[in-house]
Amino acid sequence: MSDADEQWGARLKQARLAAGLSQKMLGIEAGIDAFVASTRINRYELGIHKPDLLTVRKLAEVLKVPMAFFYADTDDEIAELLFRYGKVDEEVRLRIQALLAGQPPRDM
User: Fold this and answer.
1) Of all residues in the chain, what percent carry a pLDDT higher than 70?
2) What residues have CB less than 8 Å from 8, skipping those under 6 apart?
3) pTM for this structure?
4) What are the residues whose beta carbons fall under 8 Å from the beta carbon of 97, sequence distance 6 or more?
5) Which residue among 51, 66, 86, 100 is least packed, with the fewest CB closer than 10 Å?
6) What is the DSSP letter of 103?
7) Angle subtended by helix axes 53-63 and 3-19, to nearest 10
């Protein structure tokens, strides 16, 4: 198992705990069969297995994080920004985008 696999699993666990979901509930909400949901999420979190892209997309949707959060290499700062960006509403996202584009932020 690589460090990247362990890190991917740790990010999944971070997002799951922040969402207040058990491994089983996350798996079920992401469309994994209830009989194996807990085991599959546990193996993803431990880095033993890695889900396919479609499953990652479903997990990200349930957890309300961008898919990129899971793949932000070893840069925890970028991962944290992606995590928080996924949690804010559209108005805040537009302000962040304007700020990053060098435009003055709009008043809310």
Assistant:
1) 94
2) 44, 47, 50, 70, 71
3) 0.80
4) none
5) 100
6) P
7) 30
